Every structure is written in structure tokens, then in C-alpha cells.
Amino acid sequence: MEIFRRWMSAVFSDTQLVILFLVLVVSGAIVLSVGNLLAPVIASVVISFLLEGVVRFLVGFRWPRMLAVVLVFGLFMLFLAVMILALVPLLVSQITDLIDNIPWIVSKAQNALVHLPRQYPILTEAQVQTVVDSLTAQFSQYGQQVLAFSLSSVRSVFSFVVYMVLMPIMVFFFLKDKDVILDWLCGFLPKDHTLASTVWLDVKMQAGNYVRGRIWEIFIVWIATYACFLYFGLDYAMLLSLLVGLSVIIPYIGAVVVTVPVLIIAYIQWGFDAHFTWAMIVYFVIQLLDANLLVPLLLSGAVNLHPIASITAILIFGGIWGFWGVFFAIPLASLVQSVLGVWKNRRGCLVEG
């Protein structure tokens, strides 16, 4: 008990540590309590943070900041419009087509599984039937989930429209008034908040590199995979390639999970013929190039976490915030790593003192 009391006394006697922990506690409480309501604001902050790098690049060439903001924001809106007008209708069409064809896909999969014992005597008909029943029940559950999603789609569409109106406005003002907003936030902190600023700069650098690198990786893998599937004529090429691109968000696991539907669709469409073989060879080459070339190239300046730490962070933050928790799991883990490192160093200083 005496050791714990001395430890608490040492920690709370360090003003910088107290300020840092108060900032983290207040920020965490706000996100956990009203995070869903602030989702458009948080998303706008992230987009502004990414666009800020381009604005700073132009300002470095002596562009007026306002002109740089207007140009970057205009290009961002053009990109957003192209994505919505060209991509969304195609994705909706392919998703609708896939849902309509689910019974046929299930039937084809069942027929293929039923004939497996003839080709591979090591499998018994009872084992295959168990797998068929399990898959049928799983697809039935997915169908119910799709129906429930469609019933709540009106609210989702309304939220999407609101986000599309509010977020561009907030992104523009976050870029335009960045210094004013940061000065206002810093006004709530004590004048001497060196430790909190150090952690923020460390996380900002590492998380910024990570998010920018991941976004480039998503687009590159998405485009390369789409070109592969389109060349071989794979059904639902845009939908599957988008899933493959988004799978890079989840290290080590995403690629394995998304490969399953790719293999199923390719097998049902072609069987084990030359199209299937060559398409899957090119697909796996893209995966290998991503893991061994793109990741080291794009994420070399990002956080360096052990695989167990990365997977744990994905499970924890993904369970709390869903997709966005998965996307920002690694930056959030880098925040935890930075805070622990700072706390360890300060504790060492306190003990030596």
C-alpha cells in the first residue's frame, strides 16, 4: 500500500503528466459519450488533416493560403462528385445483382460440394452434408440481415445526404480557419503543456503517415485488382475489387477474409479452368506485391507495432467504433504507445529524482 501511495504521489506531483492524462480522459469521454453525434465532425477533421498536407505543399511554393485552400477543396469536391456519380450507381447495380443471384450461387455451391466425395474419397457424404447445411443456414442469416438493412435504408440515405451537405462545409472551414481553431482549443490548456504537445506531434507525424499511406494503398490495390478482374471478365468486378482494396485496412486478416468470396465467385463462374487459374495467379501476385512492395514503400514512416498489438488494437477499437474504429485502430494504438513511452520516461526521471 505504501508503494502504491508513493507511486501516486510521484505521478500526480508531475504537472505535465497530469495535464496529459486530463486531456486524454476528457477527449476519450467526449468521443465515447457523443461520438456517434460527432461522427461528421470527426470525419471532416480527418479529411481536413489529409488535405492540409497538400495545402502546406502549395504554401511552400509561396501560394497564398486562401488560394491553396480553395484549389485543394475544389479538387476534393470534384473527386467526390466523380466518385458518387460514377461509382455509387455501379456498386448499387452489382450489389443488387449479387443479392438476386444468391439463391443460384448457393445452389451451385451445394452441387459442387455434393460431388466432392466422388472426386476426393477421403471426404464422406455426411461430412459434406454437414458443411452444406451450415452454409445454407449462414446464407439464410445473411439474407435476413440484408432484408433488415434494406428496411432501414431510408434513414441511412437521409444520413448520407446530411453528411454530404455538412461535411464539405466543415472541411472547408477547418482548412480555412485551422490556426484560429487550434488557438481556440489551446486556450483551454495551461500555458505550459509541453508534454501534451510532444505526444501530439509524435502521434500526428506517425498517424498522418499511416493514414495517408493506407489511403494510397487502398486506391492502388483497388485499381490494380479491378483491372485484373475486368480483364478476365469476373462477375461483380467493381464490388469485389473494392472489398479487396478496403481489406488492407485490417493487417494480416483482411486479405485472407476477402479472398474467400473472390475464390467462390470465380469458381462458380468458371470452375477450375484456365480463366480461374490465371485470374487467381494475377490476384495473388497483386497481394504479394502489396505486402512486399507497397506496404514498405508507403508505410515506412508510419507506426511500428508488433502484429499482436495491431490485431489487439483492431479488435478493441473495432468493437467500440465499428468500421472507423478498425480504420483508426493503428493510429490509436500509436497514441497509446506514445503515451506509455512518455509515461515510462517521466517515471524514470521521477524515480531518479
UniProtKB/TrEMBL annotation:
The keyword Membrane applies. One of its GO terms (cellular component) is plasma membrane. Signal peptide: none annotated. It is a multi-pass membrane protein. It is found in: Cell membrane. One of its GO terms (biological process) is transmembrane transport. The keyword Glycoprotein does not apply. InterPro entries: AI-2E-like (IPR002549). The chain crosses the membrane at residues 7-31, 37-59, 66-92, 157-175, 215-234, 240-268, 280-299, 311-336. Keywords: Cell membrane, Membrane, Transmembrane, Transmembrane helix, Transport. Coiled coil: none annotated. Belongs to the autoinducer-2 exporter (AI-2E) (TC 2.A.86) family. This is Putative permease.
